[in-house]
Design a protein that fits this description.
heterodimer; A: 571 residues; Nucleotidyltransferase, domain 5; Actin, Chain A, domain 4; 6-stranded mixed sheet; 5-stranded mixed sheet; 28 strands; binds adenosine-5'-triphosphate
């Protein structure tokens, strides 16, 4: 899994210059850290989102937006959307997104492309590994140019469902580009780290959903963040709803509008027209993330006919609704898979290029309770650019580990270190509500990795005296309250048969039920007595769960002497 | 975490009499845990790793062992076994998509409306991996992408909730036919009809749908079931079977005509479907032994109620009669008693009167016996005076005193003795203030 660290190309820590790379099927980014804060590096074209494309014209190699532009006149020598093919044999790849570019081929099971990469002579058969090496070499070159020294090493992000073989293959492709891989880290975790590493971030226990909406795939993960340790609880991967589907919605829209004026000329039927249509549609889509209107304008779209049309955001949101709703269901589905509720989610991080779309963020805003933070440019002024999150996270991780020997990194990321017990239920104490009812007060959240230690300060009874610290487990459930039937509007407030008819009548629409998360008191773990607490005193309770789940409870009056300490054996 | 959370809600007071060794009472261990993988990322992980490693070196074996125990969050695909592909299906033309079984195309025949969105997505991907034209080309076959297009169409329909409902509405392959009377009679009545309603339930706007139950269902459950189904609110609709409407602007009239025709056809099919469901319910309920049983039970209960009522009435009547009789008897007895009392009273009064009379005679007789206290023959005046005084004394005392006085006088013959009694009486009366000094002086 994520632990594939180190590489045989091991570079001595003192000789290292390390960066972070997010390597996507559609776009890649490179980042370094400057005084501990991450900086995403622009390549020689000034791009920070660098299309993951390699193209050859007359022996000249192009990448990024230059290569992307070549899709119109040089599609067969242009390789796109190849990253996921790494480490896969031909039968298991999905060639769909290579449709308008070089097609993948089966060369003895290895995924390869036939490319005219030299000015003269025969075309070459290049494996996806070789293509990746060449592309990564260009990324590293851009970073080295920016930093003014040779980049030797990198932390690279990978999807959580990348197999061991894919990870090995990615490392090999990088090594072949003379790049040491310090560590591959999971994409959603890179995004979480990018947020958590901000100086203003507080260290809190929280459940985070990372929605990584990219070009060819959407990946969602539910992450428990406990004391700065991250555990992925559930993931979902979707190849049906992503950025290219939104491009497609716009392509169909503009093609139909074009055909209204030019009957029988479908720009989708001709490869070159299709490429232009696609490129401009994507540009329009991005423009609609910022402005209320965008202009589609292509010279000689098809049959030599120019085409120009304005679209507003509302229109776009209407025709793209099915895709947007697909994102909603994806996110709701993965939360269910984690056996959680939207009410359990403290934060939603929108990551990936498609996450710039305001509509997606506002849809999420309405799915989640108001207390959930939605980290997206259109819902939060302090959100980080979703396209940069992964590269930033990777760069931060690179700066954290670059001074370690690769052997050391290997051992630290070993499954024997990363596989640990996680407590199932919350652990806390019983306190009293204002009306004297027993309430669970959590101290350690569920799904916290052991060992773990948490402390709270909690009020003693008003008049002090002897205090009971009752340590229990807690669980949550969702309490649903149906609203009271509303009073009738026409003023007649009598009760009786008439009323019943009425409520029956409008029950469908307005009955918005209220849902809230409430704690349930579970098994009692221990009781401790604190004697003679002074008036207005406070009690400190510390719970320490050892790696084997033995529990040590220490409690005392804050500022007082002595205290009570006891242990619970591991089950 | 270094930070300390502060809670303002107060802890409870220690209950009276609570005690424990060193003030700590361990009660139970914490609930079993899950082995999970923490992400080896971020500054806090480095601290964890430092603690966990403790200068140990982990081997490949350790890796395998640890990975085996950790909960895997990425497993899913393996669970879907693949459905054999019908060669006839592979020959399909994409343009005939309307008549295509989208579930079969994606290898989800078994699941149909039950397939989750996730299943559909995974099934689609699996089919793409196999049938993408580039894959075909690699296998040396011709660039026939017809079936690939069928796959795309199936996915387009099934991943669009609106289109999927339209298709599911007319997906008869998911229907479960109602059992014939013969089949139902074989003893599988509940199982067979359950299946029918479970399948029918997919069209319900309201979920969950009450289940058919079995012979042990309560009357309430059965009532609830039929109520629900006789008021079934179905989302089933029939636009999927529309005839194609011409898509050009020229033939406006024809277009409108087709649209109207389609709308009518949908309405008709919907009405037929409602009728079908109603008939099915009628058939089902007609054979439902539970309904019969409940009716009989209800009848029995009703009869019992009537009998109970009659009995109660009879009993009440009898009780009333007995009560009345008893009352009458008591009244009569009381009357008789009163009468007897009255008579006894009268007798007693008469007896008392007689006794007084008799006693008075004794009193009077006594003075006569004492010769009116005269020496020699008593003069008329003397007799009168003495008798008057006797009268006076008699008038001052009640019958009991008269009787007492008579008792004292009775049998006395000697004049002095008689006089002594009288004189004592008069003195007593004067002492009691009933006579004045000097009254009845003839008796003293
Ligand atoms: N401002 C924007 N508004 C809307 N969409 C955008 C914007 N910027 C980029 N995108 C879209 O985001 C997608 C690329 O996302 P990202 O940069 O995360 O790629 P990726 O990680 O390579 O994706 P994948 O690996 O899934 O193909 C493209 O479809 C692109 O058009």
């Amino acid at each position: 899994m994520a632990e594939t660290g180190g590489s045989k190309a091991g570079v001595a820590p003192s000789d290292r210059c390390a960066i972070g790379i997010s390597f996507g099927n559609s776009y890649s980014s490179i980042a370094c850290t400057s005084e501990d804060s991450p900086v995403v590096i622009a390549n020689e074209d000034g791009d920070r989102q660098i299309p993951t494309i390699l193209s050859y014209v007359e022996g000249e190699e192009y990448t990024g937006n230059q290569a992307k532009a070549l899709l119109v006149r040089n599609p067969n020598n242009t390789v796109v959307s190849f990253k996921d093919f790494l480490g896969q044999d031909f039968p298991s790849i999905d060639p769909t997104h290579c449709h308008a570019a070089a097609h993948p081929q089966d060369v003895n099971g290895t995924v390869s492309f036939t490319i005219q990469d030299k000015a003269e002579g025969d075309a070459s058969t290049l494996s996806v590994s070789e293509i990746s090496t060449r592309y990564l070499r260009r990324l590293v070159q851009s970073a080295s140019d920016y930093l003014g020294k040779k980049v030797t090493s990198a932390v690279v992000t990978a999807p959580t469902n990348f197999t061991e073989k894919q990870r090995e293959s990615l490392i090999k492709a990088a090594n072949d580009a003379d790049l040491e891989i310090l560590q591959l880290i999971n994409e959603p975790i890179a995004s979480v780290l990018a947020y958590d590493a901000r100086p203003e971030a507080k260290l809190e226990d929280k459940i985070v959903v990372v929605a990584d909406l990219g070009g060819t795939r959407s990946d969602v993960a539910v992450v428990a963040s406990r004391g700065g340790l991250y555990t992925i609880l559930a993931t979902a991967h979707d190849y049906e709803f992503s950025g290219v589907q939104l491009d497609k919605v716009l392509m169909d829209h503009f093609a139909k509008e074009f055909m209204k004026k030019n009957a029988n000329v479908d720009p989708r039927e001709n490869a070159k027209s299709l490429a232009k249509l696609k490129a401009e549609s994507e540009a329009v889509k991005k423009a609609l993330s910022l402005g209320a209107n965008a202009n589609f304008s292509v010279e000689s779209l098809a049959d030599g006919i120019d085409f120009q049309l304005t679209i507003n955001r509302l229109r776009y949101e209407t025709i793209g609704r099915k895709v947007f709703e697909g994102f909603n269901r994806l996110v709701e589905g993965v939360i269910k898979k984690a056996e959680l509720d939207v009410l359990d989610i403290d934060e939603v991080i929108l990551s990936g290029g498609t996450s710039h779309t305001p509509r997606i963020a506002s849809n999420f805003r309405s799915i989640f309770p108001a207390t959930t933070v939605i980290q997206a440019p259109s819902t939060s002024a302090t959100a980080i650019n979703p396209s940069e999150l992964q590269a930033r996270g990777a760069a931060l991780q690179a700066s954290l580990i670059q001074e370690y020997e690769s052997e050391d990194i290997d051992q630290s990321t070993h499954p024997a270190v990363t596989t640990v017990k996680h407590i199932t239920n919350a652990i806390g104490v019983i306190s009293l509500s204002d009306d004297g009812e027993e309430v669970f007060t959590p101290i350690i959240a569920p799904e916290t990795a052991a060992p773990a230690r948490r402390t709270i300060h909690i009020a003693a009874p008003k008049d002090g005296g002897n205090v009971l610290v009752k340590v229990v487990e807690g669980g949550t459930h969702i309490k649903v309250t149906k609203p009271e039937p509303k009073a009738k509007e026409n003023g007649t407030k009598e009760e009786g048969a008439e009323d019943e008819d009425d409520s029956d009548f409008d029950s469908d629409e307005e009955e918005e039920e209220h849902r809230e998360k409430v704690w349930k008191i579970g098994t009692t773990l221990a009781e401790a007595g604190i004697k003679d607490v002074k008036k207005g005193g406070k009690i400190e309770v510390t719970i320490n769960v050892a790696g084997d789940l033995a529990v040590t409870i220490t409690t005392r009056e804050v500022g007082g002497k002595g205290g009570v300490r006891g242990t619970l054996k591991a089950a | 975490m270094a930070t300390v959370t502060t809670v303002t809600r107060a802890l409870p007071a220690l209950p009276e009499g609570w005690s424990a060794e060193k003030d700590f009472k361990p009660i139970s261990s914490i609930t079993a845990s899950t082995q999970r993988t923490i992400e080896p990322v971020g500054p806090h992980f480095l601290a964890h790793a430092r603690r966990a490693r403790h200068k140990r070196t982990f081997s490949e074996d350790d890796r395998i062992q640890a990975q085996e125990t950790a909960k895997n969050i990425e497993k899913d695909d393996e669970s879907d076994e693949s459905e054999p592909e019908d060669p006839m299906m592979l020959q399909r033309e994409a343009k005939d998509w309307k008549s295509q079984d989208h579930y079969q195309v994606l290898g989800l025949s078994k699941y149909r409306w039950k397939a989750t969105e996730d299943q559909i997505k995974r099934a689609h991907r699996k089919k793409v991996l196999k049938h993408h034209p580039d894959k075909k080309a690699a296998q040396g076959s011709t660039e026939d992408d017809n079936f690939f297009k069928c796959i795309q169409k199936a996915t387009e329909v099934l991943l669009d909730p609106v289109k999927r409902r339209q298709f599911d509405s007319v997906d008869e392959r998911a229907d479960v036919d109602p059992p014939t009377r013969k089949e139902a009679a074989k003893g599988n009545y509940y199982k067979l009809w359950s299946r029918v309603f479970k399948s029918e339930a997919r069209f319900s706007k309201q979920q969950p749908v009450p289940s058919f139950g079995d012979e042990n269902s309560t009357k309430e459950e059965v009532d609830n079931f039929y109520n629900f189904w006789y008021n079934f609110d179905s989302w089933r609709s029939f636009e999927y079977l529309d005839e194609d409407v011409p898509d050009d602007n020229e033939n406006r009239d024809q277009k409108r005509h087709m649209e109207r025709k389609n709308a009518n056809a949908r309405k008709k099919k919907k009405a037929e479907d409602n009728a079908r469901l109603r008939k099915m319910l009628d058939d089902c309920s007609a054979g439902d032994e539970r309904i019969k049983k409940f009716r009989q039970e209800a009848n029995a209960a009703k009869n019992k109620k009537r009998l109970d009522k009659e009995n109660a009435e009879k009993q009440a009547k009898e009780e009333a009669r007995l009560k009345k009789e008893a009352e009458e008897k008591a009244a009569k007895e009381a009357e008789e008693k009163a009468k007897a009392d009255r008579e006894a009273n009268k007798k007693a009064k008469e007896a008392a009167k007689n006794a007084v009379k008799k006693n008075k005679r004794v009193l009077r007789g006594s003075v006569k016996d004492a010769n009116y206290f005269a020496a020699g023959d008593a003069s008329a005046a003397q007799i009168d005076a003495v008798l008057n005084d006797v009268e006076l004394v008699q008038g001052k005392i009640d019958p009991d005193e008269i009787a007492a006085l008579a008792g004292k006088l009775n049998g006395l013959k000697v004049a002095d003795e008689i006089k002594g009694v009288w004189s004592e009486e008069v003195k007593r009366l004067i002492g009691a203030g009933k006579l004045k000094e000097g009254d009845a002086k003839n008796l003293v």
